[in-house]
Amino acid sequence: MPPPLIFGIPARLTHLIVELLYFILILGFCLATYFKTKEIEELTNHQGISLFRKIFLFFSFAFLVRMIHMGFILYLGKSQLRAIPGLQRLVLLVVSIFSTIALLYLLATMLIKHLKKFKLTQEKIFVFFVVASIVLMIPTIYFRTQTVLIAAQLALILAAGVHIMTSKHKAENKRKSSFFSPKLLYLLISVFWILNLLVSQRIIIHFESKILIYLASISIFAIIYHRVHQRLEGK
Amino acid sequence: MIDISTKPNKRRDRLEIIYSILKVVQKHHNKIKPTPLLRYSNISSQSFQGYYKELLEKSLLVEELDRKGRKHISLSEKGFKFLEKYSIILDFIEEFEL
Prior knowledge:
Chain A is mainly alpha-helical. Chain A contains ten helices and two strands, in the order ββαααααααααα.
């Protein structure tokens, strides 16, 4: 039986090309945002800027490992991947740690005003986030599924959502320079990360749905990079 | 662009103080002694010591000795860059609610 085709190309190859293009674009925007803000962090040592930058650094790592994982799935197939001892657990472990740290940095960026009261150093914050992500990772590795990870990360997103809802009133007084408030963008990043996990778990399997999720994810990272670029170039 | 002088915001206190210290040095032709710098900076002596140490550690300020062995403070290249980019930095912090 011939392999299934998408746009006249074998489906597996099409998926691989899509994954690769998606990964390159996301990684490009994440790293561009991270390096574009390097100078202002070095000049100011501002805690908020430092937390903001780390969101993109850790999402870069998370998307890199996710790409490797997707590459393995598409190249070997999920059943063959499971046959390699320890590989599935290792991938889950790394994706789980990086993505949870990224989401925790995202949450910390949203809560920066409250966080400043505790006068925590960057090192302490990092250690706390690593410990928290390891704790969240244990059930993920034990049950060999991302379901627990997705549930834990959804809880973090819910916390972020509650924060946005409660701080909405205050935000209304601020200037409205653009359509998306930064906090809404942070929330969208995390929601689309979860959708990415669902795609990699093959819970979302329709090609068209996957493309829509990928396009939306790229757009969010692109909007953030565009705004960073605009601000730092003084436009 | 934000007008720095008329935009009071508690979150910017630390940056504002750093800006004002560096601005004092710049206004004095990039050469000032520590005591007048403390006086013109308009902050307590204790706070000044903390900021001064931080600015030297981060290489925004440099200490120089003249021929008579008297200490002078100047802006480093990084210090000039901070002054140049200050309003952009504030704009960025405002934009992303940091």
